Amino acid sequence: MDVDSKDSGTQTVTPVEGARTLAPAGTIPTQRSRAGGSPHGGRSRRTWFVVAGGLALVLAGATTGVAAQRAAALREERVAEARLRISAVLPATATDAGVRDALDAHASTAVYTSARTAVAASAQQVVDRANGTLAASPQAGDGPRGALQTATGAVSAAIAGPNVSITALRAATGGVAGPEKAVADAQAAWVAAEQARIAAEQAAAAEAARQAAAQQAAARGSTKTTVKPRSTRTTTTTTQSSGGTAAPAPTGGVPAGGKVCAGSGGSAGEASAGAVGEAINAYRASAGLGALSISRSGSLTSHALNMAATGGIWHSGGDNIVGCVSNGSASSLVSAWSRSPGHNAQMLRTDVSSMSVGAASSAGWLFGAVRFS
């Protein structure tokens, strides 16, 4: 380095070629490019910014992709867990529904069974009452009794039927009231007719007793008794049904409650029991009924002989009907019985298959006693 001294005393430094020039204090040196152009050795600040931004974008993209994958995996995991929970709950729900349905069905069955049991018990009471009506109404007639038996049979079958509904059981039970009333009414009508018949027979017996007494008085006062020939004699019929109550007989020979067959009595002999039985069967045939077997009864024959010898009729306790006719005809005796409701009902019974008969005659009269079984 050259030093040039001046008079002023001020020194001037001359730069030497190849030597650095010092920048003034307080300034920032500027880096020159390799070509002597821009600073930073050819790399601009913008380039660094671009590189840094790209790297940031790459890092951000990578981070975003990982987060998305993690979120997707988390969603799939949650869906899988939800599916597992649903799969676990569904069988339990189905089981609960089945149990609930079973309990509901069981409760309905119990309620229905209880209701039907109550209706069946009430229906049985109706059947029992109807059977009592039948037992108390033996003379109600086959028609009304048969209708009631059919109705009660339908109710009994409905009670026993496991598949018969409550409605059907109630309908069958309701069909009993009508036939039961018909049976009761028919029995009441028969009782009224029987009472009227008994009253009429009592009046007739009283009249016959009065006439017999008058005849006896006239006979005692007459010196001569004229007896009409049998062919011109008026036929007299007297009958008595089982259970009937007759006026006391005027003579000591006929027991109290019996009836006098005026003009009969004395020597008596056995008559044909078969003829009386055949006459009854002929009458049954005319009414469309079958014949009954006929048998001679020794006890009834003895009773018929006793009545014929005494001259009256009464019940022995072993017969259903007794009677006497003055013309000695079995068919006349049956005809007389048929004109009395009580005797007629006995001869036309449908609950019997045989009859036992006893018959006797005295003074042209025929006496008969019959028991149906």
UniProtKB/TrEMBL annotation:
<feature type="domain" description="SCP">
    <location>
        <begin position="278"/>
        <end position="365"/>
    </location>
</feature>
<protein>
    <recommendedName>
        <fullName>SCP domain-containing protein</fullName>
    </recommendedName>
</protein>
<feature type="region of interest" description="Disordered">
    <location>
        <begin position="1"/>
        <end position="43"/>
    </location>
</feature>
<keyword id="KW-0472">Membrane</keyword>
<feature type="region of interest" description="Disordered">
    <location>
        <begin position="215"/>
        <end position="255"/>
    </location>
</feature>
<feature type="transmembrane region" description="Helical">
    <location>
        <begin position="48"/>
        <end position="68"/>
    </location>
</feature>
<dbReference type="InterPro" id="IPR035940">
    <property type="entry name" value="CAP_sf"/>
</dbReference>
<feature type="compositionally biased region" description="Low complexity">
    <location>
        <begin position="215"/>
        <end position="253"/>
    </location>
</feature>
<keyword id="KW-1133">Transmembrane helix</keyword>
<keyword id="KW-0812">Transmembrane</keyword>
<dbReference type="InterPro" id="IPR014044">
    <property type="entry name" value="CAP_dom"/>
</dbReference>
<dbReference type="Pfam" id="PF00188">
    <property type="entry name" value="CAP"/>
</dbReference>
